[in-house]
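User: Reviewer 2 asked us to show a designed sequence for the structure in our supplementary figure. I'm pasting the C-alpha cells here. Could you produce the per-position amino acids so we can include them in the response letter?
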C-alpha cells in the first residue's frame, strides 16, 4: 500500500493550490482527481486575477503543469470511493479498489448544483443559464434576465441581480413561497413575479431566447440564473463524520480544519463564497496548516 504525507481528494483550484504549497514544503502528496468539476459547463472562469476569462480546463491543465517540477507530488486521474481513519492515519480506497494512506487528508471536491428539471435547460447551461451572478453577471449586464427559484432563495437572488440588470423577472414555477413583505420588496425594486408553471426553455446555439409557461404568454429573456440548492460532490466528509452548517457545506474552523484531527476541507464544499479564487486561497491556507502540523509531529 502506497503511503503519503497528505492525500488531496479533488483537483480543482483548492486541491491544486494546496498541492503546490505542500510540494514546495517537500511533502509527499497524492492528488486524486475524478475530473468532475462544478464548472464543467462553463465557457470561462471569471474573477480570478491574471486569469479572468480563461477556459476552465485550460486553467486546471496549467495548474497541473506547474506541479510537475515537484517530484513528491503525484496527480492521478481517479476518484476516491471511501475513507476512514485508523490508528492516526487516513486510509482511502480509490475507484480502482486500491488503498492508499496518509497522515493528513484534505477534501477539496467541492459541490454540484441542483440543475432545475426543465426541458431545454441542459442545452443552455453554462452559456446563458447560470447559478452565480459574480461569475457570469457581467456578460449579461443590462439584459433581460430571469431568476428561477422560490422562497428566500429566489427572493434573495432576484434582489442580488439588481446590481447587473434592472430588467428582472422572478419565475417561481408554482405558487410563490414569499410573504407580503418579500413581494413588496420585489415590487419596489421593479422585479416582476411570474408564478405559472414553467414548461420549457427555448433558445438557439446555447443562448436563451424565451421561457414558455403552461399558461400565459411566453417570456422573452436573454439569460436565466437559478438558485435551487447544491449537494456535496463527494460523500467522504459525510462518512468521516464531519459537521455541516445550515447551507449544507462542511463546518470548518481556522485554516480549513474540521473537528476531526488531521482532516481538512477547502473550497466550495466548506464555504458560502464559492469562487475559484477563494477556493485556491483556502487550499493554500489548508496546506500551511497541514505542513505546520506535520512539522510539530516530526520535531523531537
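Assistant: Here is a per-position design you can include in the supplement:
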Amino acid at each position: 500500500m502506497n503511503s503519503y504525507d497528505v492525500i488531496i481528494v479533488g483537483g480543482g483550484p483548492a486541491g491544486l493550490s494546496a498541492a503546490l504549497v505542500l510540494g514546495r514544503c517537500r511533502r509527499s502528496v497524492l492528488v486524486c482527481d475524478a475530473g468532475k468539476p462544478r464548472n464543467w459547463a462553463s465557457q470561462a472562469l471569471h474573477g480570478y486575477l491574471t486569469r479572468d476569462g480563461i477556459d476552465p480546463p485550460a486553467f486546471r491543465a496549467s495548474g497541473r503543469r506547474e506541479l510537475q517540477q515537484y517530484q513528491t507530488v503525484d496527480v492521478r486521474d481517479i476518484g476516491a470511493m471511501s475513507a476512514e481513519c485508523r490508528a492516526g492515519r487516513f486510509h482511502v480506497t480509490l475507484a480502482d479498489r486500491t488503498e492508499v494512506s496518509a497522515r493528513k487528508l484534505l477534501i477539496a471536491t467541492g459541490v454540484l448544483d441542483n440543475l432545475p428539471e426543465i426541458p431545454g435547460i441542459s442545452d443552455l447551461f453554462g452559456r446563458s443559464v447560470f447559478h452565480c451572478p459574480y461569475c457570469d453577471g457581467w456578460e449579461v449586464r443590462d439584459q433581460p434576465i430571469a431568476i428561477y427559484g422560490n422562497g428566500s432563495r429566489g427572493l434573495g437572488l432576484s434582489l442580488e441581480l439588481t446590481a447587473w440588470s434592472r430588467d428582472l423577472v422572478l419565475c417561481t414555477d408554482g405558487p410563490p413561497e414569499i410573504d407580503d413583505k418579500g413581494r413588496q420588496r420585489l415590487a419596489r425594486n421593479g422585479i416582476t413575479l411570474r408564478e405559472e408553471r414553467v414548461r420549457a426553455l427555448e433558445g438557439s446555439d446555447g443562448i436563451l431566447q424565451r421561457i414558455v409557461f403552461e399558461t400565459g404568454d411566453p417570456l422573452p429573456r436573454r439569460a436565466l440564473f437559478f438558485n435551487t440548492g447544491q449537494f456535496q460532490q463527494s460523500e467522504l466528509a459525510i462518512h468521516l463524520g464531519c459537521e455541516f452548517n445550515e447551507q449544507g457545506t462542511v463546518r470548518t474552523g481556522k485554516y480549513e480544519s474540521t473537528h476531526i484531527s488531521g482532516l481538512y476541507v477547502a473550497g466550495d464544499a466548506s464555504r458560502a463564497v464559492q469562487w475559484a479564487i477563494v477556493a485556491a486561497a483556502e487550499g493554500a491556507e489548508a496546506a500551511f496548516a497541514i505542513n505546520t502540523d506535520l512539522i510539530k509531529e516530526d520535531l523531537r
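For the response letter, you might also mention the following. The chain is about 25% helix and 25% strand. The longest helix spans residues 276-298.
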